[in-house]
Amino acid sequence: MLRYVTTNPGKVREAREYLGDAVSQLDFDYTEIQAADLAPIAARGAREAYRHAEEPVLVDDAGLFVRGFDGFPGPYSAYAEDTLGVEAVRRLVDAELDDRRAEFRCVLAYCDGEPFAATPDPVDRDDRVTAAATGAERDDQETEPLPVKLFEGVVRGEIVEARGDGGFGYDPIFEYDGATLAEMDAAEKNAISHRGRALEKFGEWFVERQ
């Protein structure tokens, strides 16, 4: 059984489209570290979740990256949405940038406690913050870092005035191929989603892993 670590059942439904019924939800509140990139955040969460569940886990982290702002809000997308609001982010792009290009990125992190063979997809073997998971010094069982396999999905578009009533978060201001994500139905959005693209990569690899 593969445990998808999330409080959002919609993510699990999307994962099952690529991975089948072997995926189940794990509602576990792992520690989200502060980092400029998605990968270390997801990798850290996967290690902590694996130690909690003691079975294979999949953790994702995602964000909106505006090119003209050097990727901001990026890993801080949820915080920016909660504090500034989506419309404020759009107005900031309008006021400050001529280049409206942006992209949604998702990084999936997989951990099953075992090593990985070398492949084109990156493996995170760093474990600097293991002790923070328990608030204690590392014990003998945690002297070896847990390797984490990473898979990235990206969808590129641009920031526009809000359109559409569907989706959530930044969907109304992110346009892809002439339509905002909020103007797409669920099937259209899932077909091009950053998470879906990462799941597709993971699914192909996971079949061989099993």
TrEMBL record:
Alphabetical keyword list: Hydrolase
InterPro entries attached to this UniProt entry: ITPase-like_fam, RdgB/HAM1
EC number of this enzyme: 3.6.1.-
Molecular function in Gene Ontology: hydrolase activity
Enzyme category, top tier: hydrolase
Entry similarity comment: Belongs to the HAM1 NTPase family.
Protein name: Non-canonical purine NTP pyrophosphatase
Organism expressing this protein natively: Halobaculum halobium
